């Protein structure tokens, strides 16, 4: 569907891919007003792209032709849009309003969602107040979340982002099965004051359970077997396995198969966040996501931030041929946002099969490479490639109007200046003539000017999007995460893929499980000769 619109956009892409952004800006003095959108105090500025009125019209038409509104409504209604696993996709239900009724297979799931949230709040506030105490009756000062993937990246990112709101126990996270990760965390902690949260839906995730068993042994060595029940909680639905580990049912919190791991920070997986910032702040976080859900469902497509954000991504990936995008938060507390969005985006849209299981067109590009670091650090690392490299990599800047440290206002002013300067420099570049004039003004001799000018010129025409917000608080963070979630959904809907499975992750798990006995014992048992050779070499090092 929409093949004619796709072809028209391909023609526009061929024409505009190398268009001068300087000229586009000069031709439209009102460009910022016409190519930015907002909801309340959240702004999406896409004026520094090659999207023009005809391109935008074509993209909006493509969204209609590919059925984005209908697919969106089906998701919110609880339809089984995850077709490969025959599951609904309802992470949005976890932040729905108090009066919401959302059904899956004819059953309203909201009473169970609310009951689980109430249990989580009771537990979190009990840990914070000390009424839920350690084995010796003392207050917990530290919590350690043991998980991986969606059971780690979301809580890690959100906990760091909301550091100014922490007034509970210190939060630590262990994900990597590399023993160094667990060791480096545990050596800073007092067993008597530490609570562990083991997050694994099945309680079989090998990395998580390996770390959990090692943490259990560490605790038992210090406090004895009887202390396990007081010092562990679980996020899991495998009650029998949790009980066998020594964790009581009242300390176990589940979530549902219609919540994917990378969309699970709103669920019981967010328990460490709730303990760190409190139930009230966590509700503000959910409310921010709910506000973005409402905007996504109700705003016209031409003013709909997730739709516009997704369409710009499709424009850059499919019609301009850009293979990657750089996520550049000018907010140090969003340092883990690039990694979080990397999983959200690449695990969702790194697909080569259509949603119905059929083949995608051979020339259809799907999810791009997503990477990034916070500014201004990245400016002193990889921005050189963004400015003068041979590949064009669209950038996504995030910036707050206001920081959390009023006594360091000069710092924030410098941060904002750098963010805005980078977006302008990427777009406009610097011509050889401009570089020549600058060098001449500096008083360099003519031969030196001629030698240096090519080095100091920049091609420009590097598109970027800027997301601006007043202040990074729980509500705003909820909106930002939901914006990225729905952007991924829009892109997947246009590409015709399922954004909610992850069979590539499962393949790696299968192979690692099969290899483990050979790694522990004899490499000759490995069937693949290349893997057998590498394993044998490792054993000899």
UniProtKB/TrEMBL annotation:
The keyword Transmembrane helix does not apply. GO terms for molecular function: carbohydrate derivative binding; glucose-6-phosphate isomerase activity; monosaccharide binding. Its EC number is 5.3.1.9. GO terms for cellular component: cytosol. It comes from the Bacteria. The active site is at residues 347, 380, 509. It is an enzyme of class 5 (isomerase). Pathway: Carbohydrate biosynthesis; gluconeogenesis; Carbohydrate degradation; glycolysis; D-glyceraldehyde 3-phosphate and glycerone phosphate from D-glucose: step 2/4. Pfam families: PGI (PF00342). Keywords: Cytoplasm, Gluconeogenesis, Glycolysis, Isomerase. GO terms for biological process: gluconeogenesis; glucose 6-phosphate metabolic process; glycolytic process. InterPro entries: G6P_Isomerase, G6P_Isomerase_C, Phosphoglucose_isomerase_CS, SIS_dom_sf, SIS_PGI_1, SIS_PGI_2. It is found in: Cytoplasm. PROSITE patterns: P_GLUCOSE_ISOMERASE_1, P_GLUCOSE_ISOMERASE_2, P_GLUCOSE_ISOMERASE_3. It catalyses: alpha-D-glucose 6-phosphate = beta-D-fructose 6-phosphate. Catalyzes the reversible isomerization of glucose-6-phosphate to fructose-6-phosphate. This is Glucose-6-phosphate isomerase. It comes from Elstera cyanobacteriorum. The lineage of its organism: Bacteria, Pseudomonadati, Pseudomonadota, Alphaproteobacteria, Rhodospirillales.
């Amino acid at each position: 569907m929409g093949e004619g619109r796709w072809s028209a956009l391909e023609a526009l892409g061929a024409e505009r891919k190398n268009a001068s952004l300087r000229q586009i800006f000069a031709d439209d003095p009102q460009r910022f007003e016409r190519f930015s959108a907002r909801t309340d105090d959240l702004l999406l500025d896409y004026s520094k792209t090659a999207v023009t009125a005809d391109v935008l019209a074509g993209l909006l038409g493509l969204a209609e032709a590919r059925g984005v509104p209908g697919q969106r409504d089906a998701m919110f209604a609880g339809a089984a849009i995850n077709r490969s696993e025959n599951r609904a996709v309802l992470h949005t239900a976890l932040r729905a309003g108090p009066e919401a009724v959302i059904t899956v297979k004819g059953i309203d799931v909201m009473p169970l969602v609310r009951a689980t949230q109430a249990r989580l709040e009771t537990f979190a506030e009990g840990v914070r107040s000390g009424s839920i105490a350690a084995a010796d009756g003392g207050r917990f000062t530290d919590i350690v979340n043991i998980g991986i993937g969606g059971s780690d990246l979301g809580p890690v990112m959100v906990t760091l982002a909301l550091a100014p709101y922490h007034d509970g126990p210190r939060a630590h996270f262990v994900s990597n099965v590399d023993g160094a990760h667990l060791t480096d965390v545990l050596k800073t902690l007092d067993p008597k004051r530490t609570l562990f949260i083991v997050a694994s839906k099945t309680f079989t995730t090998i990395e998580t359970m390996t770390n959990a068993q090692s943490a259990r042994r560490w605790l038992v060595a210090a406090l004895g077997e009887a202390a396990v029940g007081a010092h562990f909680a679980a996020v899991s639905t495998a009650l029998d396995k949790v009980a066998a580990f020594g964790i009581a049912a009242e300390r176990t919190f589940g979530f549902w198969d219609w919540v994917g791991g990378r969309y699970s920070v709103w669920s019981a997986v967010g328990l460490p966040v709730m303990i760190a910032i409190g139930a009230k702040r966590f509700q503000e976080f959910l409310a921010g996501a709910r506000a973005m859900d409402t905007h996504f469902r109700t705003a016209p497509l031409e003013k709909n931030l997730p739709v516009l954000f997704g369409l710009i991504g499709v424009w850059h990936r499919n019609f301009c041929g850009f293979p990657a995008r750089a996520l550049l938060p000018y907010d140090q507390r969003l340092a883990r946002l690039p990694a979080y969005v990397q999983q959200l985006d690449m695990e969702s849209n790194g697909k080569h099969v259509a949603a119905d299981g059929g083949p995608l067109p051979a020339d259809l590009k799907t999810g791009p490479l997503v990477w990034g670091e916070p500014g201004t650090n990245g400016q002193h690392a990889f921005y050189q490639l963004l400015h003068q490299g041979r590949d064009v990599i669209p950038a996504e800047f995030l910036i707050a109007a206001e920081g959390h440290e009023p006594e360091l206002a000069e710092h924030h002013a410098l941060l904002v200046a750098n963010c805005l300067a980078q977006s302008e420099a990427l777009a406009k570049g610097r011509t050889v003539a401009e570089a020549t004039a600058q060098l001449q003004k500096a008083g360099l001799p003519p031969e030196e000017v001629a030698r240096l000018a090519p080095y100091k010129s920049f091609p420009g025409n590097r598109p970027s999007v800027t997301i601006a917000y007043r202040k990074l608080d729980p509500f705003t963070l909820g909106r930002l995460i939901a914006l990225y979630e729905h952007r991924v959904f829009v892109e997947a809907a246009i590409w015709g893929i399922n954004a909610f499975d992850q069979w590539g992750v499962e393949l790696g798990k299968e192979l690692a499980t099969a290899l483990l006995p050979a790694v522990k014992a004899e490499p000759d048992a490995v069937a693949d000769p290349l893997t057998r050779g590498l394993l044998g070499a490792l054993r000899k090092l």
